[in-house]
Amino acid sequence: MNAAAKVLAGCKPMTRREIAARLADDIPEGWYVNLGIGAPLQVADYVPAEREVIFQSENGVLGMGPAPAPENINRWLINAGKQYVTLRPGGSYMHHADSFALIRGGHLDLCVLGAFQVAENGDIANWSTSDNESAPAVGGAMDLAAGTPRLWVLMEHTTKTGESRLVRRCSYPLTAIGVVKRVYTNLAVIDMTNEGFAVRDMVPGLTLDALQSVTDAPLRMA
Amino acid sequence: MNAAAKVLAGCKPMTRREIAARLADDIPEGWYVNLGIGAPLQVADYVPAEREVIFQSENGVLGMGPAPAPENINRWLINAGKQYVTLRPGGSYMHHADSFALIRGGHLDLCVLGAFQVAENGDIANWSTSDNESAPAVGGAMDLAAGTPRLWVLMEHTTKTGESRLVRRCSYPLTAIGVVKRVYTNLAVIDMTNEGFAVRDMVPGLTLDALQSVTDAPLRMA
Amino acid sequence: MINKIVKDMAEAMAGIRDGSVVLIGGFGSIGQPNVLIGGLIEQGAKDLTVVANNSGVGHVGLAALLETGRVRKIICSFPRTADPVVFEKLWREGRIELECVPQGTMAERMRAAGAGIPAFFTPTAVGTKLAAGKEEREINGRRYILEEALPGDVALVEAWEADRWGNLTYKSSARNFNPVMAAAAKLTIVQTQHIVELGTLDAEKVVTPGIYVNRVLHVPYGEPTVT
Amino acid sequence: MINKIVKDMAEAMAGIRDGSVVLIGGFGSIGQPNVLIGGLIEQGAKDLTVVANNSGVGHVGLAALLETGRVRKIICSFPRTADPVVFEKLWREGRIELECVPQGTMAERMRAAGAGIPAFFTPTAVGTKLAAGKEEREINGRRYILEEALPGDVALVEAWEADRWGNLTYKSSARNFNPVMAAAAKLTIVQTQHIVELGTLDAEKVVTPGIYVNRVLHVPYGEPTVT
User: Fold this and answer.
1) Which one from B58, B133, B156, B163 is the annotated catalytic residue?
2) Which end of chain C is more exposed for a tag (fewer CB within 10 A), N or C?
3) Does the global pTM surpass 0.90?
4) B-to-C residue pairs, Cβ atoms closer than 8 angstroms
């Protein structure tokens, strides 16, 4: 049983959906938010419609709503993950240059991305594992990471084999440098500060020592 | 009686409106055309509606039509000269960055500008006479001159005091360098070639020698 | 519930600081937010830099703002509309600084600011005195100069329709600089002819999405005068 | 009378040369002009460089074009949609060159091409391996890299409505790269679901004005499949 497995056995790690819900709680009404493909997209499910948060999709959709009922699908309306979505009243469309002008221009309040690694200097690696077997594919990740003033990462705390995803320096190819502001994992919520990672809260049953034992980069309480 | 006056007495110079009409004859159907403020704006009056030429105005109007009847004025619809205009069926609006992207991107087939001077190297001076009494005001002239692949100039051949406006080198502040393709004056139509000015045609009664006598830069027949 | 519609001019103008760069929409008086300009005069911020295509006409709107003496500098393509009496006097007396910028370069510099582009190369003004002091580079055999983004602290915008999210449409050529400035400023304040219910604007027709808008003031003031 | 509507595919594809840079609209299959891609396959131009956000799915559309072996290089942000079997095979066998570009940089490089901007600075990709070999500069304390315009010889575009002047609207998120590419290419060819009479499109709602369009082919082919 590796260190990670021991730690996980001693507490109740969150599921992906629980992390998404935890993150969603921290998004106030009125924010403009881009959710990266994969797990981050689930965050939208936990923001109640009466709390108006405006979701943007890189493919030119501002004011995205939930998935449509099968009988109401608009086949020209998808999100960045190429899933059918809806448009909320007040939503609008724009072309790709305008969409990324919005992203690069820093107009979003928040972007949530998944990641392979986040480093204590705020670097993020989320687009490539240097696996030369498949072609590189960056999509909009670098634009979102470099452009959004507030980048939160949603990811498992460790890899399946127990390696820390919060690292001193990323070993995978970088997506952007010094941009991550907060990390939501299945074990904790961790802020990025000028002094590195600072733990905001942990799942019940977890101690800072136990969390540190599965984390490569040094941690302190916020 | 100066040289210019003598030449003018020996032929029948065109009026501003005649120059505009002469130029309009050379615009084929299907061209996208920007007409500079002042005399060039009159060119539109001599393109019959059935010959579809699409006029653009720098303030975001594509497909501009003639002045409206007083009872049909749309007070939000003006041209670059701040005169009320109409929109033809098929016309559309765009914002200023898109309008100048269109201009700078070289998408117009033709731009017609007035000028103080045109030089045999294609330089144009049309925005300032270095008069330090009034503030500099360039408007869209530099964008139009640098951006449009085909720039024609419509101007009097000489100044009121008889000085040539077709010069070896411009003495007034430049608008753009090496861009003029053709000049329509009250005396002649003159192409810009790699070897300088080449006269395409002259008003009846005028000879090349007489035209040269009122022109600073050397002329040849095209 | 998001509601960017403000109740009065004081709320619209709150917090505009001395020294701000203020982007003011309009081409001549068409699309120029004259009521907001009046509010800014009332609000009293000074030492302003104003970015606007023209420099005001007679003694109204932008000209009235200049006349207060609170504008240190104007960035402008054409300070010579019909009756620029206020500007010309200030300029001759050396009481206002003028940066004359080609119109398309001015628009693109603001577009760049909104789009996170700090600088770009352009062929406009190459070889002219407006290129003085600017970096020049030959790219693929043609000469270009480098121009920098022009961001605003505040944008004053005139719209045709607006909803409570701040989505905007414009009318005809009154669109002009307004959408570009809305995206280029940190604080975008809108005067609109019409307020409409959220969801009634055609999603395919919104020109400025609400993300670029902070405050909307309903000013059904009628038709502009061309000057 | 201006009439950009062409009668058949042969007329739509006439003159596309070997070695062309072909911009192909769409985000995945939404807004992708698959019928025109079929026409390009039929037309036979080879040694092409294709610019598209994705690299094709299964054996249809863009994937079918790649499968002909006539695409020398693809410029693309995400060559990994659902079933990129054709592209992956070509790439592993070294039979196609890939330039992987961040999606927003790709969009902006084409926007720049259409706008007469030869190069611009951007923060995207700074410090990453996609910035390798690119000029870097610090501007106002932040690091940026220089990116060049990406013009096309040909753009293949899917529209919702078109008129005989080539004015276009798009449907929902099928807008995506299409308007940007229409403006960035020398020859823009459109397949449209609907042809409408000149003057019936709302002047406030036209997304691509006809100045950016050369040929329009009426292809009322129905709804896209998401892949």
Assistant:
1) B58
2) N
3) yes
4) 151
